[in-house]
Automatic annotation (TrEMBL):
Residues 31-333 form the Plant heme peroxidase family profile domain. InterPro entries: Haem_peroxidase, Haem_peroxidase_sf, Peroxidase_pln, Peroxidases_AS, Peroxidases_heam-ligand_BS, Secretory_peroxidase. Residues 1-27 form the signal peptide. One of its GO terms (biological process) is response to oxidative stress. It comes from Hibiscus syriacus. This is Peroxidase. It is found in: Secreted. Pfam families: peroxidase.
């Protein structure tokens, strides 16, 4: 009887553990993996690469626009391509003031790459827009001189995109180090990750309104932000007069704006960070050593960026039976 009781107890424990075991197995089988499409769409990386390179040859803006699109997508609702969804009433993520400046070339890059993937009968409707955006981001980084890195795949596309979900989810040009760290930590990203991802500002541009206060009306004591290189501030004034056309855009990196390199950090050492949130990485002693490291060693920056962008690509992903594979990246199925 004693042995029989032990058997019964063991069976009961096994029955209790089965749901937990199945959940663990499910989590393992739906995790991201570089070879996720090895049987369903084995040529997905080369197809996306070709489409992105074709778009890049048409316009350089493809690079910074795609890179920024990936960041904005992952920081709001996770990397689920919700940033690509359009809304007839202007209430989608892309319609939020923090997103309206996203260049159309980034959206177009993903749409063209998706069309190229789906033109392959083996791949049609099998690759998510979220994964295509992740792959396209890697391509533009490499095309501009940055590192090649392995992209984890297996994301599914979200069905929801609301303007309200963007509120207080994206870093602002005026942020200090504590605000930056808090926002990035919310997504499992460290201060080093944040500094490395900020290095993406080595590409791209910003509109004058985003930094005009630093060069015209910083404080009652100083019209120019004292952390800003004065000569650089005067150059910015020439490019951004007080009554400037809001469509005027300035390179984030005034020295090598078309190259993914560590010059961004060298600029910070010279007081030439365009945003307060850029320059604070050097002026704050808690982050200065990392800036100095990346400025002195491009390989250190590249390695840190690869680690950070890989972690970024895991934020809030939908996998397995979650979400869907959108047939049209701009709307749910």
């Amino acid at each position: 009887m004693e042995n029989g009781s032990k058997i019964v107890v063991s069976l009961l424990l096994l029955l209790l553990l089965l749901p937990l075991l199945s959940t663990t197995i499910s989590a393992q089988t739906t995790s991201l993996a570089p070879n996720f499409y090895s049987t369903t769409c084995p040529n997905v990386e080369s197809i996306v690469q070709s489409a992105v390179r074709q778009k890049f040859q048409q316009t350089f803006v493809t690079a910074p626009a795609t890179l920024r699109l990936f960041f904005h997508d992952c920081f709001v609702r996770g990397c689920d391509a919700s940033i690509l969804l359009a809304s007839a009433n202007g209430k989608a993520e892309k319609d939020h003031p923090d997103d309206v400046s996203l260049a159309g070339d980034g959206f177009d890059t993903v749409i063209q790459a998706k069309a190229a993937v789906d033109s392959n009968p083996q791949c049609r409707n099998k690759v998510s827009c979220a994964d295509i955006l992740a792959l396209a981001t890697r391509e533009v980084v490499q095309l501009t001189g940055g590192p090649f890195y392995t992209v984890e795949l297996g994301r599914r596309d979200g069905r929801i995109s609301t303007i309200a979900s963007v509120q207080r989810q994206l870093p602002q040009p005026s942020f200090n180090l504590d605000q930056l760290n808090t926002m990035f930590a919310r997504h499992g990203l460290s201060q080093t990750d944040m500094i490395a991802l900020s290095g993406a500002h080595t590409l791209g541009f910003a509109h004058c309104a985003k930094f005009s206060k630093r060069i015209y009306n910083f404080s009652p004591r100083s019209r120019v932000d004292p952390t800003l290189n004065f000569q650089y501030a005067m150059q910015l004034r020439q490019m951004c007069p007080i009554n400037v056309d809001p469509r005027i855009a300035i390179n984030m990196d005034p020295n090598t704006p078309r190259t993914f390199d560590n010059v961004y950090y060298k600029n910070l050492q010279q007081g030439m960070g365009l945003f307060t949130s850029d320059q604070v990485l050097f002026t704050d002693l808690r982050s200065r050593n990392t800036v100095n490291l990346f400025a002195s060693r491009n390989t250190a920056f590249n390695q840190a960026f690869v680690a950070a962008v890989t972690k970024l690509g895991r934020v809030g992903v939908l996998t397995g039976n979650q979400g869907e594979i959108r047939r049209d990246c701009t709307r749910p199925n």
